[in-house]
Amino acid sequence: MVVTQMLNRDINSRFEDWLLSPRETLDFEVKQWLDMSDAESQGVVAKALIALENHGGGFLLFGYKENDDKSLSPDQNRPASLEPYLTDALNAIVKRRAEPPFHVEVILQRHPTSGDEYPLVRIAGTSKVPVRSDSATPGGSLKQHVYYVRAPGPESRGPLNAGEWDSLLRRVIMNQREENISLLRALLPTFATGVASQAPPTEADTLHAFAEKAKLKWNALNDALDASNQSKITHGTFSFAARIVGTSRNLDPRRILEINESARRYTGWPALVTLNHEKTRPRLVDGCIEAWLADISNPGVGYADFWRIDPKNGNFFLLRGYHEDSLDPSRFGKPGTLFELTLPVWRLGEFLLRVLDLADAMYDQPYEVLVECEWDCIAGRHLFSHNYRRHIPPYKSAESTVRTTGSFPQNVLRELLPEAVKALTKPLYEHFEFFVPPDSFFAEELSEMTKNRF
């Protein structure tokens, strides 16, 4: 189904390569095919899921086994049916074996060469209290009342010292953050209307000039692509730019790139994504860290990112095509006619969080964040929801380009992200026949996004 393919494509972009050269990490565990009707096998699965939930989220992949040399390869004992590995079956194990229970989601990941499907379990890691095992198995694969965590090795086991307990408790406290922020919003009911203030003209002009120079560079690169290239963007782009105003720590470009590569990913294709291939890896150009991702294994306008980080002046830029323009035209119409409702919130929210992660390392606190957003070629596009979670009339835009700006204190941007994103995207949505999403829309979508860990 086309909609399912779109939902899964971010995950596919990361894990197709992984299936060819697998390795376990603290947030990624692998199990061979198991007899899921066996209590001990269920205990093995429950232990892994509980540990990943307490770890703050991660993935469990079935169907790979460990060889004598510790490498991983596909397990040839493939079951006749994958039904015992799907979402309902695994959530039944969690409900029976974990306290409190939590939800997991299974996606069938197709191997890029063999075509075989492997169950990939996504664990959100959003529990607000530590999770423990609620029952023991006769053979001891799962012990009762153990708060399993992920530990170096990697392995799943109970905490062994105060540091591991502290890490577990800190994670669940962070998961209570939304409740605490809701209390803050209740105390400051008028704050949201004043989140975005007028940016200082000189700083805003500097940011705008940086963004325009980056667009000119991208235009030259995009124009040089052959018309048949699937990464050539012809139906419009969106772009985000940010500038940090504060005291710089003068980090060198290599260190900034390392921080960017290790930053948390909320989607499978995050803001300022790096790919270490010859034609796509970041390079230092005109004093900026620059990457252009047109030449990738799964090309498409929604993945042909062009981005820049200016280490010296604290400027950031990201440009991308619309995912909507890659959908099957026989089902969704011609490219350039759709505008997905939730993606502006997800893309902008993730960009701002990545900028904050980098700015925290590059600048002393406190600092200000100036933001400029632009969506072009939106005239004639109509709103739709790709996953049908939200129902909306097909409001259409008559305006071709919408640009918004804002200036935010660093602590406000992080703690009141939904209000900041609303301030920057509300003018965009209003151009679709005066449509204004409710406040809950921004909070709910960003909450859903920040549950993820890729």
Could you characterize what this model shows?
The chain folds into two domains: 2-177, Methyltransferase, Cobalt-precorrin-4 Transmethylase, Domain 2, CATH 3.30.950.30; 202-450, no CATH class. The protein is 35% helix and 20% strand. The protein has helices spanning 2-20, 39-55, 87-97, 162-174, 177-187, 201-223, 253-262, 329-332, 343-362, 410-415, 417-430, 439-450; strands at residues 28-31, 58-62, 64-66, 72-74, 98-99, 104-110, 117-123, 132-133, 149-151, 155-157, 237-245, 283-285, 288-292, 306-310, 315-321, 338-340, 368-375, 382-384, 402-409. The strands form six sheets. The chain has a seven-stranded antiparallel beta sheet with strand order 12-13-14-15-11-17-19, sandwiched between helices. Strands 1-2-7-6 form a four-stranded mixed beta sheet, sandwiched between helices. A hairpin with a 5-residue loop joins β3 and β4. It is globular. InterPro entries: Schlafen_AlbA_2_dom, Schlafen_AlbA_2_dom_sf. This is Helix-turn-helix domain-containing protein. It holds the Pfam family SLFN_AlbA_2.
